[in-house]
Amino acid sequence: IKRVTTHSLQEMKNRGEKIAMLTAYDYSMAKIVDDAGIDVILVGDSASNVMAGHETTLPITLDQMIYHASSVVRAANRALVIVDLPFGSYQGNSKEALNSAIRIMKESGAHGVKIEGGVEIAESVSRILTAGIPVMGHLGLTPQSIYKFGTYTVRAKEEAEAQKLREDALKLQELGCFGVVLEKIPAMLAKEVTDSLQIPTIGIGAGPHCSGQVLVIHDMLGINKGFRPRFLRQYASLYDVMNDAIQGYVNDVKSNDFPSEKEQY
Ligand code: KIV
Ligand code: NA
């Protein structure tokens, strides 16, 4: 199987083929995602929420991200594997950002990093890129800044914030990013940005005009039972499937139905 590369993503945008991206954080899930034909696996810092149970993405550490990423890399034969730089691993200065990106690449074997922010982090993005590490941007709702925003509602509805986002996207492209995630912004703004850039945009809650889409795997599989925001399409109800299976097991054990004659030595 031929590995998806940042170049193949650019070719996909050029020929109008949409890019399909999902998160994964462990070997078994990443294996299923990769076998199903996903183009990009994101080892997102959403692991902080869905794997560790934190309320925000802020607590997850670089070491924990590297653990998740190395598990995913061992499973991914075709997908490009991109890893989030977690909160606190790059904001200090560009040298810290570069060191964090290098640790991710060396210790996990991933193929690139994603980093939240625009012009403020230009120096860090540029320094990571200079080391030959592919970088993906992330604009709009950037969850590591949740305590600045105050809510997880849609971003850049006001013109001033929309204008900054347009400039940030162009800056990230100029620096050499291979793509940019647009999270929870109006569909028309996402279309404008996508049309203004050569590099692909990957949307989440950003409408149909992006070059590709990304979702958190636990959300789209319905493992996160209560979570049903407007932008989410739920493709399965795995919470119910798994709950039924586990209840069946509990009942079988308690009723002496399991193990049976054929399930013993
Ligand atoms: O951490 C994550 O899952 C993400 C995607 C939602 C883009 O950054
Ligand atoms: Na993230």
TrEMBL record:
Enzyme class name: transferase
Pathways per UniProt: Cofactor biosynthesis; (R)-pantothenate biosynthesis; (R)-pantoate from 3-methyl-2-oxobutanoate: step 1/2
One of the GO biological process terms: pantothenate biosynthetic process
Positions contributing to Mg(2+) binding: D45, D84, E116
Enzyme Commission code: 2.1.2.11
Keywords: Cytoplasm, Magnesium, Metal-binding, Pantothenate biosynthesis, Transferase
Source domain of life: Bacteria
Subcellular location: Cytoplasm
Positions annotated to bind 3-methyl-2-oxobutanoate: D45, S46, D84, K114
Main location class: cytoplasm
Coiled-coil positions: none
SUPFAM superfamilies recorded: Phosphoenolpyruvate/pyruvate domain
Active site (catalytic residues): E183
Cofactor details (free text): Binds 1 Mg(2+) ion per subunit.
Catalysis: reaction(s): (6R)-5,10-methylene-5,6,7,8-tetrahydrofolate + 3-methyl-2-oxobutanoate + H2O = 2-dehydropantoate + (6S)-5,6,7,8-tetrahydrofolate
HAMAP family for the chain: PanB
Family recorded in the similarity comment: Belongs to the PanB family.
Subunit structure: Homodecamer; pentamer of dimers.
Name of the protein in its database record: 3-methyl-2-oxobutanoate hydroxymethyltransferase
UniProt organism field: Mucilaginibacter straminoryzae
Gene: panB
